[in-house]
Design a protein that fits this description.
Blueprint: H1 28-45, H2 53-65, E1 93-95, E2 98-100, H3 106-118, H4 154-164, H5 171-182, E3 188-191, H6 198-211, E4 226-229, H7 233-247, E5 257-260, H8 266-275, E6 279-282, H9 284-293, E7 304-307, H10 310-315, H11 319-332, E8 347-352, H12 357-366, E9 371-374, E10 397-403, H13 409-421, E11 426-430, H14 434-445, H15 448-459, E12 475-477, E13 486-490, H16 496-507, E14 515-519, E15 534-537, H17 544-551, E16 561-567, H18 574-581, E17 586-588, H19 592-600, H20 612-632, H21 634-651, H22 669-674, H23 682-690, H24 696-703, H25 709-727
Parallel strand pairs: 3-8, 3-9, 4-6, 4-7, 5-6, 7-8, 10-16, 10-17, 11-14, 11-15, 13-14, 15-16
Antiparallel strand pairs: 1-2, 12-13
Bound molecules: adenosine-5'-triphosphate (ATP).
């Protein structure tokens, strides 16, 4: 899709307040807020004098979750000794008051060797993710049919080929076009995997039927014929761009689309509507607003209402707004005949890549006697009971998971990125929270020299200290991974302007450098980012549907793509859960973390290291260098601590049904701290430094409430254990 399509911001309309929101997927802060609201509602609806242990615990957890991470008292600078070349890394090293625990001892060693034995050795010359031998693409343009074969007007077909380089329909377009062009004008539920071209599947029939209107009707002022609803501004903008690309030809140039997404003055949207619009695209809130308040908006001739990304519309709490929009459209619609080419009634179309219960609920309320349109390739499943049918990923998408002990997470991520950036890849990394995105951005982009400059600046008090973490720069060179690569970050706390710029730069085809986008789930759904080679789920998703949407950013429209998900050893059961809920063809990374670390920390561009100790040394040196940078930079340390506590908080928001897999009590906080390049869990560090036994200050400190990130994490872990015990009637 064209670069301009990536304008955008991720702020959707405000979800309506009184709807039942779904407690899965999306931003962890939203889920946490929602959880609290639900608890508050539940608490107020039960007895006001509920002093049961569960109620008391729940209230305590809520108040603790709001406790801000305290500022750790400044830590004495610790000189870190360089790693010994004689593999002394296997032993813990003591620096002043902290032990630097080795990466490759204990649990991690055990895990490394057990996985190594469990699998055949991978071919040394083989790429880490060999997508060549995957199944045939299931979302690619078909070789057996043409657009003429699905009844598309020849002029529109040549426009697609010449201007958009689209020569044949995909599977879902093959199913949808005949049904929506010449069918009985029934409502339709379009369900197809990510990147399969659902947008064109509903837009092409609409454009073709408008093009065939009688000549007297072919003008922007002849009426509003289609309303398209999408959950976010950037998705609306994407659809708007595709519609404009389609109508940018002699046949359809008169068709005018209009985008109402907020972020722009309502007055200018109104004036565009007043000039005449044939296709109106918008986010639910803004559309409902115009429908209610913009008098010139005439809905009487609307013949199509499309609800795109139905699952996300529901997840974001738009059910009530959509019901309102649909009932307005029903009440104001006339059955005035518009010519042979047009449907004789209003046709509602619902699109979704997943078919979970909320989407089924939306289909029941929005569609009547609907056709169910899905890829003809899924005909083998035709007899499958629709109630138990599972959503699936594109067949050619190579899906892997890797079980990685917490201490090795950071170096393993660095290794995956290093080894794939060499091949000029475009990679997306999904993380659980914005603070973690910020930390990894800093960790990968920082140069040692920068830290030294910061240090000098601090020492010279006359100079103003500059904190590179405070500004909103969202792109830099990934110095610590590959000096030719760029690293970008994207999350909801960045300004809209920064996010827009980030996306358009990340997608720029003018730039041929390898690149990484570190992001939260803000980028998981609907975004059509061109040619992504690899999706890394560094933190597990918050719902199995999110898993599909995240990996769906690669392997689009028949392209190859790979995805890898990192799991902690105690999270392996998540694979069974995924397999139970969705159709996934996921296998374990051969040789586990060893293969990843070996290829990531082999000599750049050369063969993999021959001895295990060689890559272990390099990985250890990489980690220690970052740890030393953090010790030397209070700013960077603050970023790491914040990321650590936000990670733990986000972890606590996994669905209660998944809590036996993502169990807070299984988190080893010290090792998790290591994955944020902290030598100890932050609270422990501050406690060590504040140990002033026998002094008055020490006694005062003892009394003071410990609000350090690790203390909060430990309390949450304790609370989670209590809740777990209550829920499972343990103890
Ligand atoms: N027939 C086709 N041939 C080649 N490319 C196509 C075809 N149809 C669509 N595409 C391209 O495929 C990409 C994905 O299309 P689209 O965004 O509509 O997918 P989607 O099914 O809506 O995915 P998601 O569910 O992730 O939103 C776009 O870049 C689009 O231009």
């Amino acid at each position: 899709m064209a670069e301009e399509s990536l304008l955008l911001n991720f702020v959707a309309d405000e979800p309506s307040s009184s709807v039942n929101r779904v407690n899965s997927g999306g931003r962890w802060k939203d889920r946490m807020k929602e959880k609290k609201n639900q608890k508050r509602k539940a608490a107020s609806s039960t007895s006001a004098k509920d002093h049961s242990p569960a109620a008391t615990n729940s209230r305590k957890v809520q108040s603790r979750e709001n406790v801000p991470a305290s500022n750790e008292s400044k830590r004495r600078k610790t000189a870190a000794s360089p790693v010994s070349k004689q593999h002394s890394v296997a032993k813990p090293v003591k620096h002043d008051n902290t032990f630097v625990s080795s990466l490759f001892t204990g649990d991690s060693k055990e895990h490394l060797s057990s996985t190594t034995n469990a699998h055949d050795t991978e071919d040394e010359n083989q790429s880490m993710f060999d997508t060549q031998n995957q199944d045939a693409p299931s979302n690619a343009p078909l070789s057996t049919t043409t657009f003429a074969g699905v009844q598309l007007d020849s002029q529109l077909a040549s426009h697609l080929e010449e201007k958009m380089n689209i020569t044949a329909p995909t599977n879902i377009q093959n199913s949808c076009l005949p049904a929506l062009l010449n069918g009985e004008d029934k409502d339709a539920f379009i369900e197809a995997e990510t990147g399969s071209g659902k947008t064109l599947a509903y837009l092409l029939p609409i454009i073709q039927r408008l093009v065939r209107l009688p000549p007297t009707k072919r003008s922007r002022t002849s009426g509003l014929f289609a309303v398209i609803v999408a959950p976010t501004r950037e998705l609306c903008q994407q659809i708007y761009n595709v519609a404009n690309n389609l109508t940018n030809n002699r046949l359809a140039h008169w068709i005018v689309s209009c985008n109402v997404i907020g972020g722009e003055k309502k007055k200018s949207e109104k004036s565009r509507i007043r000039k005449g619009v044939n296709i109106l695209i918008g986010t639910p809130g803004r559309l409902a607003d115009h429908i209610e308040n913009t008098e010139v908006l005439d809905l009487s001739q609307v013949r199509w209402v499309v609800l795109d990304e139905g699952d996300r519309l529901m997840d974001m709490g738009f059910e009530e707004t959509i019901t309102k929009i649909l009932s307005y459209l029903d009440s104001q619609n006339s059955l005035y005949p518009l010519g042979d080419s047009m449907p004789s009634r209003k046709v509602n179309v619902l699109c979704s890549a997943t078919i979970k219960d909320t989407v089924k609920r939306l289909s029941q309320s929005a569609l009547k006697d609907a056709m169910y349109l899905r890829s003809s390739s899924s005909s083998a499943d035709e007899n499958e009971d629709q109630k138990i049918r599972k959503s699936s990923a594109p067949a050619q998408l190579l899906q892997r998971y890797c079980v990685i002990p917490p201490k090795l997470r950071l170096v393993s991520l660095a290794a995956v990125l290093r080894s794939n950036l060499i091949n000029n890849q475009k990679i997306i990394v999904f993380l659980s929270c914005a603070d973690s995105v910020n930390f990894h951005f800093e960790a990968f982009r920082r140069k040692k020299a920068e830290i030294e400059v910061e240090q000098e600046e601090r020492e010279d008090e006359s100079k103003k200290t500059t904190s590179s973490t405070g500004n909103e720069e969202a792109v830099d060179t990934a110095y610590r991974l590959n000096e030719k690569a760029k690293v970008y970050r994207l999350h909801g706390s960045l300004s809209q302007q920064t996010r827009t710029k980030t996306l358009s730069q990340f997608c720029s085809e003018k730039d041929s450098s390898p690149r990484i986008l570190l992001c939260t789930d803000v980028a998981s759904r609907g975004l059509d980012l061109p040619n992504i080679d690899l999706v890394v789920q560094y933190d597990a998703p918050f719902s199995t549907d999110d898993y599909l949407h995240r990996i769906g950013r690669t392997a689009r429209a028949g392209h190859n793509g790979a995805a890898i998900m990192f799991l902690l050893p105690k999270e392996v059961e998540y694979i069974d859960l995924l397999r139970a809920n969705i159709k996934v063809n996921i296998t374990e990374q051969p040789n586990g973390p060893s293969s990843i670390l070996n290829s990531g920390f082999s000599v750049r561009g050369g063969p993999p290291a021959k001895s295990e100790l060689e890559w272990q040394d390099r990985a250890t040196e990489w980690q220690l260098e970052l740890e030393r940078m953090i010790l030397d930079s209070p700013e960077l340390k603050e970023v790491a601590k914040k990321a650590f506590s936000s990670y733990v908080r986000a972890y606590a928001t996994h669905l209660s049904s998944e809590r036996s897999i993502f169990n807070m009590r299984d988190l080893h906080l010290g090792h998790i701290a290591k994955s944020f390049a902290l030598r100890e869990a932050p609270g422990k560090m501050s406690n060590n430094n504040n140990k002033q036994k026998g002094t008055v200050a020490g006694a005062r400190l003892k009394k003071k409430k410990d609000n350090s990130p690790a203390a909060i994490a430990a309390k949450m872990q304790q609370k989670a254990m209590e809740h777990y015990s209550i829920e499972h009637n343990i103890g």
